[in-house]
Amino acid sequence: MPSTHILSAFDEDLKYLIRRISEMGGLAEQMVGDSVRALVNSDAALAQKVISDDVVMDNAEREIGDKAIITIARRQPVAADLREIIGALRIASDLERVGDMGKNNAKRVMAVQGTGVPRKLARGLEHLSELALEQLTDVLDVYTTRSAEKAKIIRDRDEEIDAIYTSLFRELLTYMMEDPRNITTCTHLLFCAKNIERVGDHATNIAETIYYMTTGMQPEGDRPKDDTTTDVSAVAE
Fold it and tell me: Of 64, 89, 210, 227, whose CB neighbour count within 10 A is largest?
């Protein structure tokens, strides 16, 4: 009877962690999507909501961390059970950082409100955001199913986001070179684009964590990358 009680209590602890991760994931997606909408529509009220939501994300990560520590201390899990808890800690950290990316973009809404975001650049930011959020949504679904194969597929998709980011990076530089009056706005948008690209990186981190949770191993090989923005000569061509 005691062992059954302990097992049931541990299952409840895991269910709590899974539920809180799911809630964090939903809020992270909303924050990033709202931050981009606020940016392209110069919506200061929506931007402020995103900034306020960051407190909720921070609190959720702390609660997951506290629960994980207590669970480890009380249940002393090993093997797959321990990986579940460590995985939840890692994923909560990545989701908190995704929320930070949304908050950082929202903070730049007021900076570009006076000039607005050119429609062509807005479409580029929206497209990049759609890809990154699709990656995040897919990996959160995989967290529910625990499919190592699907986690590996998502991990290998990261280069598509990198390619779109590189294209947008070059376009923003072109706008700045064509008219110095665009430099301030485009600089803010460069930071915003990088934040969105980082959302894809965090989704990839989560995919790697899920793979580890399921298999006990890290994915083989380096993750594919197609970000060439550090190659100045390539950007200038």
Answer: 210
Nearest to 195 by CA among 81, 109, 116, 119: 109
Rounded to whole angstroms, the Cα distance separating 82 from 167 reads 42
Backbone angles phi, psi at 156, to 5 degrees: -80, -5
pLDDT reported for residue 171 = 95
Q: What is the average pLDDT value for the chain, to the nearest integer?
A: 91
- Is the Cβ–Cβ distance between 22 and 141 less than 8 Å? no
* Gyration radius from the chain CA atoms: 20
Q: Residue 95 corresponds to which tokens in the numbers above? A: 């989701």
In 208-226, which positions are buried (b, 16+ CB within 10 angstroms) versus exposed (e)? Answer: bbbbbbbeeeebeeeeeee
Give me the domains of the chain, ranges plus CATH numbers: 2-236 (1.20.58.220)
Alpha helices in the chain (DSSP H): 2-41, 44-75, 79-107, 109-113, 119-145, 148-155, 158-178, 183-215, 232-236
Tokens of 199: 């959302």
The string of pLDDT tens digits covering residues 179-191 is 999 999 999 999 9
Give the number of other Cβ atoms within 10 Å of residue 66's Cβ: 10
Per DSSP, helices labelled H in 76-118 are: 79-107, 109-113
Instruction: Using alpha carbons, select from 228, 129, 213 the residue that is nearest to residue 169.
Output: 228
Question: Is the per-residue pLDDT at 20 higher than 80?
Answer: yes
